[in-house]
Amino acid sequence: MAHHARTIHPRASRVRRWLSVIGAVALAAALLAIADAPAAAEGPAPAALYYASPDGSDDPGATCGQVDDPCSLARALDVLVPGTVSTIYLVPARDGGSVFTTDVGWEVSTAGDVAMEPLGAGTATLDGQGVAPHILEVFGGAGNSVNLRLRRIEISGSQVRSYDLGESSGGGIHVHDGASLLASDCIFRNNAVRALVAGSGSAISYGGAILNDGGLVGVEGCLFVGNDVTATAISGSGLAWGGSITNI
After folding, report:
1. Which residues does 148 contact at the CB level (< 8 Å), separation at least 6?
2. In this structure, how many other beta carbons lie within 10 angstroms of the beta carbon of residue 170?
3. Half-sphere exposure of 125 (CA within 13 A, CB side)
């Protein structure tokens, strides 16, 4: 059998060695450049901060961005920028009170991550005065989802009443489809839903502290006190469920 020997020219061998050296130098230079490059920013963008007070301004020009010049809670929710991470700090009024009152409730409808908590220690109260159908209504939907986080807030005094409509629903917080709520160390107190049918037919009532209408709800370290749903039919049937959290 014939064997063919391969002859390597000395000059070709030297060329290969030089190419290997050049390649190693280029790789080392690239690694040094990567090591010296500034590190990429990590974590979420800093939160935009807003300040609201029970006696804060409703002025359409208010930016709510200064702790010593807070605006109303409605105004703070109105100036949120879509798609951002935001925190609304609840600041005591000039008389020291931390109770925010409403007879219609507040809407949280600007897409993004929204946190709400008292400034400093203690709690703040959002009070529906026994007439607001909800305290907070959190909206969702395609491209418009709100992720709301509450901390050390009391939600109290919402009340939904329906007469001869058959069905009554609501809650201290109403979370719509596509939205989410995380409540930590909060109190839900005396939120009520009532349905009354005076004639024949069925009365249905549900909700209470939180009505989750297709969203995501989480609670941790919260207290539920005196939340109530009732359904009364004079000539028919009554069905009530919920009280604390109702998922539909």
Report:
1. 108, 114, 115, 116, 136, 138, 179, 180, 181, 182
2. 29
3. 14
Would you state the structure tokens that stand for residue 124, as one six-digit string? 């703040």
Using CA atoms, how far apart are residues 210 and 128, in angstroms rounded to an integer?
A: 14
Specify the pLDDT at position 163. Answer: 67
Q: Report DSSP letters for 38-93, one per residue.
A: PPPP-SPPPPEEEEEEEEEE--TT-----TTS-E-HHHHHHTPPTTEEEEEEE---
Contact 123, 96 (CB under 8 A): no
**Model's pTM, two decimal places?**
0.78
Across-strand partners of 136?
A: 106, 173
Residues 90/124, Cβ–Cβ less than 8 Å: yes
State how far the Cα of 178 lies from the Cα of 85, in Å rounded to an integer.
17
Residue environment code for 56-89, b if the CB has 16+ CB neighbours within 10 A, otherwise e: beeeeebebeeeeebbbbbbbbbbbeeeeebbbb
- Contact partners, residue 205, CB within 8 Å, separation at least 6: 167, 168, 169, 193, 194, 195, 229, 230, 231, 238, 239, 240, 241, 242
% of residues, the chain, pLDDT over 70: 79
Say which residues have a Cβ less than 8 Å from residue 76's Cβ, sequence separation at least 6.
Answer: 50, 51, 52, 56, 64, 70, 88
Q: At residue 110, what is the residue type? A: T
Binned at pLDDT 50, 70 and 90, residue 46 comes out as low
